[in-house]
Amino acid sequence: MKLKHSNSNQRKQPSGEHLLDVRNLSVSFDLIEGTIPAIFRLDLVLDQGEILGVVGESGCGKSVMAKSIMRIIPQPPGRINSGEIFFESRELLGLRESEMRDIRGKEISMIFQEPTNSLNPAFTIGDQIAEVFRFHHRLSKGQAWSKAVEELHRVEIPDAEKRMRSYPHQLSGGMRQRAMIAMALACQPKMLIADEPTTALDVTIQAQILELISQLKRNIGMAVILITHNLGVVAAMAHRVMIMYAGRVLEEGPVENIFYHNHHPYTRGLLQSVPRLDQAHRELREIKGIVPQLNDLPGGCAFSNRCDLVMDICHKREPELKPIGPRHFSRCWLEYEPQRNG
Amino acid sequence: MEQNLLVVQDLEKYFYIGRSFLFAKGHIIHAVDGVSFAVKKGQVFGLVGESGCGKTSAGRAILRLIEPTAGQVFFNGQEVTSATTKELKLLRRRMQFVFQDPYSSLDPRMSIYRTLREPLSNFFTHLSRRKIRDLVAEYLVRVGLEPDYMNRYPHEFSGGQRQRIALARALITEPELIICDEPFSALDVSIQAQVINLLKKLQRDFNLSLVLISHDLAVVEYLCDPIAVMYLGRIVEISPKATLYEKPLHPYTEALLSAVLVPDPYVEKDRYRALLSGDVPSLVGIPSGCGFHPRCPLAINACRKQRPQLVEVTPGRLVACIVRGASVEKQSAKYKD
Question: From the candidates B189, B198, B215, B254, which should be mutated to test the interface with A, based on the most A CB atoms within 10 A?
Answer without folding.
Answer: B189
